[in-house]
Predict the structure.
Amino acid sequence: MSSLDLQKAIVTLLDGVLSCPVYDDVPDDAQYPYVVVDADLVSNSRALDQYRETVMVYLSIWSDYAGRKEVKQIADTIRTATENTCPAMDSGVCENLRFERVTTSKDVDGTTYTGRVTLRAIIRP
């Protein structure tokens, strides 16, 4: 399950650089800000007769700070930490991890701000 191993590697990497927790399943008593691993999309990326996978990892940032400042700071830290790096995986090899994009917005509740970060990885299972 290389995409799960990649998720673990990304969470470990981000836990080391962020000042807020990273969750797969947000606890009921979670305090803002935090980052959530929302989803991933795995595609076949065969190259030169060697099987690889392209994995798009989608993260959400949640903050109750007034305005987008905190969300943008967290997104920038994620960008810096993940740009063209190869975090160690328990199984398989991450050949490349890079930051693709970020969007920020005010949540429909009118007080919470969110950010959506997309990471792209190439892994060899």
In short: The chain has one domain: 2-124. The domain at 2-124 is CATH 3.30.2000.30 (STM4215-like). The chain has a mean pLDDT of 94.
